[in-house]
Specification:
The protein is an alpha+beta fold and 237 residues long. It folds into 2 domains: 114 residues, 2-Layer Sandwich (Nucleotidyltransferase, domain 5), CATH 3.30.420.40; 110 residues, Nucleotidyltransferase, domain 5 (2-Layer Sandwich), CATH 3.30.420.40. It is 37% helix and 26% strand. It is built from 8 helices and 11 strands. Strand 9 and strand 10 form a beta hairpin. Bound molecules: zinc ion.
């Protein structure tokens, strides 16, 4: 059984070919400023290009694939992205758009839940029955397992711990509220703090930052990272 997994992040898209639970080929691309201006078209085009790229690399055709699974940030219901503030997407039926070009069954789910399920089946949560999984990226996503089962609330989005207000009248969040956990503890929050120290524009990718940091032996940056971790622990524990 060969499947394709698509990971839509806040600043990048990744596509992998999955055989028996293992990624056998992978390609990804960062989303730039222009992509974000026309995010729907950029996502659809990027995903299709990357799928073609991994299929070519693996000498496979689309007919060899059984299913495409998509992970995206935000609230996903009935295979539709209902609300993804970090991507600026609302009520976007990305599957119908992709199926205009790729005629395969597709499913989409919240990215934190996808990551949590992967950890539960294959990784660090394998032996934990009751646990909370935090997905710290551009925003902060979460999933909760009780008695080994992923909790899926019926009416609400789920465990949007990133949008739990931890600071009254705090930093403005993209969801519209102020003082959300992710405005203090997400990778975006860390990037903004580091951009401040480096005196650079904060519109850069995580990949750019990690490459840049290799060039800096900067005590100030170490201090920012220490403060961020300390802040994270204090605010969450
Ligand atoms: Zn928020």
């Amino acid at each position: 059984m060969i499947r394709i997994g698509v990971d839509i992040g806040g600043s990048h898209v990744g596509v992998g070919i999955v055989k028996n639970g293992a990624i056998v080929d992978f390609a990804d691309r960062d989303l730039n400023k222009e992509d974000r201006l026309n995010i729907k078209e950029a996502l659809v085009n990027t995903i299709i290009e990357l799928i073609n790229e991994v299929l070519d690399d693996s000498n496979l055709g689309i007919s060899d694939i059984d299913l495409i699974g998509i992970a995206a940030p935000g609230t996903i219901k009935n295979n539709i992205i209902v609300k993804s503030p970090n991507l600026g997407l609302f009520n976007f039926d990305i599957i119908s758009e992709l199926q205009k070009t790729i005629n395969l069954p597709m499913q989409i789910r919240n990215d934190s839940k996808c990551a949590a399920i992967a950890e539960k089946y294959y990784g660090s949560l394998k032996n934990a029955d009751d646990c909370v999984f935090l997905c710290i990226g551009t925003g902060i996503g979460a999933a909760v397992f009780m008695d080994g089962k992923l909790l899926e609330p019926k009416r609400y989005a789920g465990f949007e711990i990133g949008h739990m207000v931890i600071q009254k009248g705090g930093l403005q969040c993209k969801c519209g509220k102020k003082g959300c956990f992710e405005t203090y503890a997400s990778m975006r929050a860390l990037k903004m703090r580091i951009a401040d120290v480096l005196g650079i524009d904060n519109d850069f990718t995580g990949r750019y930052l990690s490459e840049k940091l290799l060039d800096f032996n900067n005590e100030k940056i170490e201090q920012v990272i220490d403060e961020y971790l300390e802040d994270f622990k204090i605010r969450f524990m």
